[in-house]
Amino acid sequence: MDVKEAYLYCEEVIAANSKSFYRTFSLLPKAKKKAVWGVYTFCRTVDDIVDEGDNPAVELENFKQEFHEFLRGNFDAENPMWVALADVFERYAMEAEPFHALINGQEMDLTIKRYYTVEELLTYSYHVASTVGLMLLPILAPNKTQVLREGAIALGHAMQITNILRDIGEDLKIGRIYLPSEVMQKNGFNEEELYAGTVSPEFIAMWEEMAELAEHYYRSAFETIHEYPMDARIPVKGAGLVYKEILTTIRAKHYNVFHEKHFVPDESKKAILACL
Fold first, then answer.
1. For residues 249, 225, 238 and 38, what is the CA-based torsion angle, rounded to 10 degrees?
2. 152 in the same domain as 64
3. Which pLDDT does position 21 carry in this prediction?
4. Residue 228 has pLDDT above 90, yes or no
5. Binning pLDDT at 50, 70 and 90, where does residue 274 land?
6. What's the pLDDT at 97?
7. Which pathway does the record list (predicted)?
8. Are 66 and 181 contained in the same domain?
9. Distance of CA 118 to CAs 23, 72, 78, 240, Å?
10. How far is residue 263's CA from residue 20's CA, in Å, rounded to a whole number?
């Protein structure tokens, strides 16, 4: 498979699975945009193994070995993800560590179904979300990777906590509770009420405490946004602002996260991007 075909496949993957990221990162110059598609497809593949695989533990271990071989220059030349990623690694000063950490984070989903402290949740969120930002830094801001590292980690935390607050109902269906029990207890909300789908004042207080944490990390991430080169600044900030808007959308729908998955309307996305 040639590289052009591989990138087209990766673009189809992100367009089908993440309309928000696809819209915002489509603003990048062509070379950077294609590289982002390649990295996204790697992340999506790992995620799908855990969420949809027939034997995820074995499949994830096999994938881990495939990645080790990839780093040594051995990969399936007919697999578009590896073909695109090989081109990305050739063109940019990519680091392997965030890729390894992402795989480790997905392994956590196979064994950990409950989080007790905010610190535990942030460790998880670093592995499954902040790592993605670290993967992208050599592409988006090749000369500023160290300056932007903490901001990329913060944006990952912000987006992952947003995901968690949006997907409470879906996660319950598969037996996962990402809301830290210490925050639930602090606000007088228990697991029985969570499984009952009770949107009480206590639930809202607990949800808002976690939303405030996410908003803290968005603010932290945006503090260094000016360090990105111009061609990447708007896509990165746009992605963050569109994701942050999910919290506003949930509030407007009276915190109904048990029976509905909330998305930012296209008009809102356009309005956010138009203001950048």
1. -120
2. no
3. 87
4. yes
5. confident
6. 97
7. Carotenoid biosynthesis
8. no
9. 31, 37, 42, 21
10. 9
Q: What is the Cα–Cα distance from 87 to 66, expressed in whole angstroms? A: 16
User: Could you tell me if 68 and 137 lie in one domain?
Assistant: no
> What's 146's domain CATH number?
1.10.600.10
The pLDDT of residue 154: 98
Is 137 in the same domain as 267? yes
Contact (Cβ atoms closer than 8 angstroms) between residue 177 and residue 114: yes
- The runs of H, that is alpha helices, within 197-257 are 201-222, 230-252
Q: How confident is the model at residue 212 (pLDDT cuts 50, 70, 90)?
A: very high
Boundary of a domain, candidates 82, 111, 140: 111
- Number of structural domains (the chain) is 2
54-71 pLDDT tens trace: 899 999 999 999 999 999
| Helix ranges restricted to H, 76-200 | 80-91, 97-111, 118-125, 131-140, 145-166, 168-173, 181-186, 191-196
In percent, the amount of the chain with pLDDT more than 90 equals: 89
Look up tokens 């535990």; give the residue. Answer: 120
Q: Which domain holds residue 250?
A: 113-275
150 shares its domain with 254: yes
Structure tokens at 23: 């819209």
* In the block, residue with structure tokens 């680091």: 95
Q: Give the SS3 label for residue 192.
A: helix
pTM: 0.94
Let me know whether 7 and 106 are in one domain. Answer: yes
* AA identity, residue 220: S
Please name the amino acid found at residue 182: E
Q: What is the DSSP letter of 11?
A: H
| Together in a domain, 84 and 219 | no
CA atoms of 211 and 164, how far apart (whole Å): 10
Q: Which of 69, 84, 111 is the last residue of a domain?
A: 111
